[in-house]
TrEMBL record:
Membrane-related topology note: Multi-pass membrane protein
Family listed: Belongs to the binding-protein-dependent transport system permease family.
PANTHER family linked: BLL4140 PROTEIN (PTHR43227), DIACETYLCHITOBIOSE UPTAKE SYSTEM PERMEASE PROTEIN DASB (PTHR43227:SF8)
The organism of origin for this protein: Streptomyces pseudovenezuelae
Entry-linked InterPro entries: MetI-like, MetI-like_sf, UgpAE/MalFG_permease
Chief place where the protein resides: membrane
Listed name of the protein: ABC-type sugar transport system permease subunit
Taxon lineage: Bacteria, Bacillati, Actinomycetota, Actinomycetes, Kitasatosporales
Keywords for the protein's UniProt record, in alphabetical order: Cell membrane, Membrane, Sugar transport, Transmembrane, Transmembrane helix, Transport
Coiled-coil region list: none
Renumbered residue ranges of the record's region Disordered: 1-21
Amino acid sequence: MTTAAKAEGAGALPTPSAKPRKSVMGTRLWVAVLFLLPALILLGALVVYPIGYSIWRSLYDADGSGFVGLDNYGDIFSNSSTLTAVRNTAIWVAVAPALVTALGLIFAVMTERVRWGTAFKLIVFMPMAISMLAAGIIFRLVYEQDPSQGAANAVAKAVHDTFVSSSVYPKARPNATASDLKASGGGSFTTTGTVRAGTPALLPLVGIAPNKLPGTPENARAASGAGVTGTVWLDFKLGGGGTKGQVDPGEKALKGVKVEAVKGGKVVASAKSGADGVFTLPASADGGQLRLPGSNFAAPYDGIDWLGPTLVTPAIIGSYVWMWAGFAMVLIAAGLAGVDRNLLEAARVDGANEWQVFRRITVPLLAPVLVVVLVTLMINVMKIFDLVYIIAPQPSQDDANVLALQLFLSSFGGGGNYGVGSAIGVILLLLVLPVMFVNLRRLRKERER
């Protein structure tokens, strides 16, 4: 070998080894398995095994001793209670997530321009700190039928009484033995005879305890004078005594009772009794019959039957919206914070008003966040159980039934049929899977961007 060849060999770089280099996963597979093993064990114990066991159990009868195949699934769709649960679950999925997302979007956008926006967000988000059980108890009280206990009906009654006057004497009725007032339909009472000027009419009523009269009633006074007049009073006093059909000392006047004069089926005059029970009609009432309209005796307005068969599901959805609107608001507000403000300003410079900016710029930019919130809430409402079980009273619980509640009732709530309960659980899983698939597909697309 020449000197030049030696020098060239000495200065050359070493030739790389022809042996392929092994990947980390290939040489240390046991490390990956070691780290994944706890998660795989938990996944199998808490997810895979329960799903597999539920599918297997749904193919057996109530006590698990006999194989029935798909009969449990057939029973689900032939049972009226389960069909009601399916219908109500569909209502929940269609209404509640959309309502919560829309409300969260409105709150998130509006609080951006409110001076105390942070405090408002805190107040709206606070219900999320309350458990479903506590929220159910709260709204069971809110929806109480008695306006003195239920906040919702207290508000409804206050609004109603503002526009419609309520009856003062709902339990009053004519004294049948001492009055010619007879029922004339619609809760009203009409005299069989006619009234004449100079002959005071006597309209005695009973059915109310003297100590239950509103306010501080005055003693009744017998009417007098030449006009068309009369007296409306409570023909009864504590301790008894007196003459029926006559105004006796100590008997109380009924103030504010409306009296109408009727001729030929038409009202020709009307008046209200005063503090002493006396009323005076114009001369046109002479020769007419006296009628006490049903508005004098109508039962007081007790509010809305929130937990009745008709409104129980919307009422419970309302409580769900109260709880989860804060959750939607916080997520949407976080997405809104990442929106490029230059785009919004550019749209305003181009002449767009606030509604156009919101509809054409803000909402499209927030679409990924809105989809996340909507999908999360759809999965959540499919499992709704606590609110329905606690808020709906027993008489209307069947009308508010949902699949998760039906699963509980079939298995543990007296039904004792674990086969049907497992079948309902499998159906719930099948209903959730498409939503999860859409969510995973969306996440994959976002990663590819």
